[in-house]
Amino acid sequence: MIKVENVTKRFGNITALNNISFEVKKGDVLGFLGPNAAGKTTTMRVISCFISPSSGWVDVCGYDIHKEPFMVKKNIGYLGETTPLYLDMEAYSFLSFICDIRGIHNKEKRIREIADICGISSSLRRRIGELSRGIRQRVGLASVLVHDPPVLILDEPTSGLDPIQITQIRSLIQELAKEKTIIFSTHILSEASYVCNSVVIINKGEIVGSGTIGEITQNGELSLEEAFLKLASK
Known about the structure:
10 strands; about 35% helix; 4-stranded antiparallel β-sheet; alpha/beta
């Protein structure tokens, strides 16, 4: 479903990613873990074709990011850490705008469907700026789901949310995982243990660990936090 092969990304003299490789299989929910500035966001932006790697390649659903970036983007729903919302627009108008960009026909039906999935039906006619952060995040998720992509890439989707909102977004991700392949980055380790079936740990632009939760924790001998600290200190 997703294959990242020998990807390096440099910004001037700074190497943000150093020859990283990993694979995400269809139906996986992969937690991309690492401290701040580890390279998580850069990796996600490379996979989503928002930036190009300095070297290496990525395959998404059979499409090469270098040769077919349009098809890669068509198969991905990417939600960045800063949700790109127009605060003066109603949620419905914003989703309608996204549908127009995506060329979605019968958009009213699709908006109603995705609003129901994301739990925002009662908020569609409210200005986004009036909504709680948790509901705004749901609107953001709806906006990357309207074209029904098989892959979701979520960058810190629970960042800045309160505990109740975190639980709600976590439940939504678990529901979406029944039909989608998902990568989401987080530095909140409990999120990965609740939602993911596999993890990749990155630090200073390099992959320092990967595998199932059981493999990473040595079948429960270590907590995920202990395993993370051990690997991230390499």
